[in-house]
Amino acid sequence: MSTPAPAPLPVLRAGLADGLTVAGRNLLKLRHQPGQIVATFAFPLVSVVLFGYVFGSAIPIPGGGNYREYLMPGLFVMGTVFGLVGSLTVIAKDNGLGVMDRFRSMPMARSAVPFGQTASDLVVAAGSLAVMAGCGLLFGWRAHHGVGATLGAFGLLLLLQYAVSWVGVFLGSLVRNEETAARIAPLVMPVTMISNVFVPTEGMPTVLRVIADWNPVSAAAVACRELFGNPGLPTGDLAWPIEHPVLATVGWSALLLVIFVPLAVRRFRTAGL
Amino acid sequence: MGTPDAAVVAEGVHKRFGATTALAGLDLTVPAGTVYGLLGPNGAGKSTAVRVFATLTRPDEGRAVVAGHDVVREADAVRRRIGLAGQHAAVDEDLTGRENLRIFGRLFHLGGPRARRRADELLERFGLADAGDRLVRTYSGGMRRRLDLLSSLLVSPAVLFLDEPTTGLDPRSRNEIWDAVRDLVADGTTVLLTTQYLDEADQLAQHIAVIDTGRVIATGSPDRLKARIGGRIDVVLADGADLGEAARVLSAIAAEGTRPDADPERRLVSVPVGADSVTLPDVVRRLDQEGVPAVDVGLRRPTLDEVFLTLTGRPAEPADPPGTATPALAGEVSR
Fold first, then answer.
1. Shortest CB distance from A6 goes to which of B84, B86, B109?
2. Which of A98, A115, B10, B79 is placed for a possible disulfide with B88 were both Cys, Cβ 3.0 to 4.6 Å?
3. Rounded distance, CA B245 to CA B252, Å?
4. Within a domain: residue B247?
5. Are residues B172 and B256 in the same domain?
6. Quick one: B261 and B275 in the same domain?
7. Among residues B60, B21, B10, B55, which one has the least CA distance to residue B214?
8. How far apart, in whole angstroms, are the C-alpha atoms of residue A265 and residue B319?
9. B55, B91, B95, B109: best mutation site toward chain A, by most A Cβ within 10 Å?
């Protein structure tokens, strides 16, 4: 009956193996929660109907074009940023239940939790993007610039998603439980709204327009519109991130990663000490 | 440390959280292969002590050695040798019991197949085999606690920390956990158990440390601790007129520095005695010799509650305060 502790694994191998285990655990959990999967995938459908047909009926696109074609890239980005809520909630829940304490009392790599979480987030995000794209196709959205540009756009979205997921993991490690996480989550809403996701920024008051133009969400949406060949690309005197949307999105993502990966890893190593 | 057979040694461990002092110079030696009870009211520092030993929190001062390794400098070595089961069931609600164990087993680096086998083995042994494929969300409190305990046994730990393992459980579940703990000790695991249930310490632990405001205020076996305040002999006399004579007789056996109390209304003479210093037949004989007829003679052994009251000057917290705020919270606030 006695099971002695195995010899310690080399650090890197342990970190990788543990990270994969944690990622597998998160995906397994999702499988047991069909409700959550439905909710994840219902979001894009509801958004397209709500924003595309309800709001879209009254929003003209500068330069003409179908509003839903304008909207879809924005919704892709919005869904991506909302991924933050998922990682925030999972980590906060583990904290609240004491699962995190068990992890930390075990001889596993402490960085496995944030790396595993962000990895499983990426898998979920890819699935959710695929469903969203399917919905978009149903409602008349198309990618016009070929396979390369299309894959480029989705790659960009996944990069942003990965970066945002690290922000969620870090925030999740700061809050004590799921309830607190649930109270923070709605704050993501304005981040996605003050942008060009739903309407062009040209008509906004100056202060709001500047914020919206420098919002990473806007740059990502413009980058996707450009790569998919969707209408509503801004013209005239543009803010830098809007003029160089792909570069700006990569830059914003890199910046978030540079800040939040070390913060999160440090946090998991030293929390409670 | 000079004590090779000690599973846990703490020397002058201090831990502060902001303005709150959780541990104020904790000294502790837990002999290997025993169940050691850390007994104290809410907020006494029990959980913080366990968190230090389990490498979850770092002491501000002093040092602690668990299974021969320093908890700060050799935290990884400690983590390979301990198990931790908390008062909050640290298992994943959204997975089945079996999946929980398999995943924790992998994280202990048992490897997939071995983690699988070990999970099945433990579920079988601790009566959770049938519930193993159900989501933990559907488990009763007692089942969760048992699964939590199993999660800390995947790799046979040298030292197992149980932080209030039965708080909030019904008596039946509590008994199940107790049986599991006794089983483990039979396997040679050292168990450090924190509890605010006096009967739990009495039932399981060979040694107890009473802890209050972050330090140990008394140690010993449950019996020794009770002996420290001894017992009380109550004699009910046939005739109230004998009270003075009875008190004279009984003062000969009174514990040092104490005198018999007489209660004329109940014709009762009561005297504190040192533990094991007197037997009932002895008392009866002395009274007989002096011609003091008694209708009832009784020896009252102290409960651990009384021990606690004597040691700390205040009663232990009620075991299961129904309808009050969560004890843990109330404890934090009151400190």
1. B109
2. A98
3. 12
4. yes
5. no
6. yes
7. B21
8. 40
9. B109
Instruction: Residue A262: count other Cβ atoms within 10 Å of its Cβ.
Output: 12
Closest partner residue to A3 among B58, B135, B155, by Cβ?
A: B155
* Domain hosting residue B198, numbered range: 6-81+157-226
The CATH code of the domain that includes B71 is 3.40.50.300
Q: Does any domain span residue B178?
A: yes
Same domain, B211 and B247: no
Contacts of A101 in chain B (CB under 8 A): 56, 84, 86, 90
Q: Does A17 touch chain B (CB under 8 A)?
A: yes
| Sequential pLDDT tens for chain B (335 residues) | 444 578 999 999 999 988 888 999 999 999 998 899 998 888 888 889 999 999 988 999 999 999 999 999 998 899 999 999 877 668 888 999 999 999 999 999 888 899 999 999 999 988 889 999 999 999 988 888 889 989 988 888 899 999 988 887 888 888 888 888 888 888 888 999 998 877 788 888 999 998 888 999 888 888 777 777 677 888 998 888 888 888 888 888 887 777 888 888 888 988 888 766 778 888 888 888 888 888 888 887 776 667 777 777 666 554 443 333 333 333 333 33
Q: How many CB pairs under 8 A join A and B?
A: 104
Of B206, B226, B246, the residue at which a domain comes to its end is: B226
Same-domain check for residues B241 and B210: no
CB A154 within 8 A of CB A123: no
Task: Flag whether B110 is in a domain.
Answer: no
Q: Are residues B54 and B37 in the same domain?
A: yes
| CA angle, A180 then A182 then A188, to 5° | 115
- In this complex, is the C-beta atom of A126 within 8 Å of any C-beta atom belonging to chain B? no
Does B248 lie in the same domain as B162?
Answer: no
Å from B199 to nearest chain A CA? Answer: 26
- pLDDT score of B276: 67
Query: Are the Cβ atoms of B89 and A17 closer than 8 angstroms?
Result: no
The closest of A268, A256, A266, A265 to A83, measured between CA atoms, is A256
The distance of B106 to chain A (nearest Cα, Å) reads: 7
Do B168 and B293 fall into the same domain?
A: no
Packing angle of the helix pair A67-97, A216-228 (nearest 10 deg): 130
Mean pLDDT (whole number) for A27-34:
88
Q: To 5 degrees, how large is the angle CA B177–CA B178–CA B184? A: 90
The answer on B296 and B161 residing in a single domain is no
Nearest to A259 by CA among A251, A249, A269: A251
Number of domains in chain B: 2
B16 falls within a domain: yes
Nearest CA in chain A to B57: A273
Q: Identify from B56, B154, B162, B184 which residue to disrupt to test chain A contact, counting A C-beta atoms within 10 A and taking the largest count.
A: B56
Pick from A18, A25, A97: CB nearest B88 = A97
- Domain C-terminal end among B205, B226, B247: B226
As for the ipTM of the complex, it is 0.85
Phi, psi torsion values for B263, nearest 5 degrees? -125, 95
Domain regions of chain A by residue span: 13-270
Cα–Cα distances in angstroms (integers) from residue A110 to residues A12, A15, A71, B33, in the given order: 12, 8, 40, 30
Residue A82 and residue A160 in contact, taking contact as beta carbons nearer than 8 Å: no
Name the minimum distance, in Å, from the CA of B40 to any CA of chain A. 22
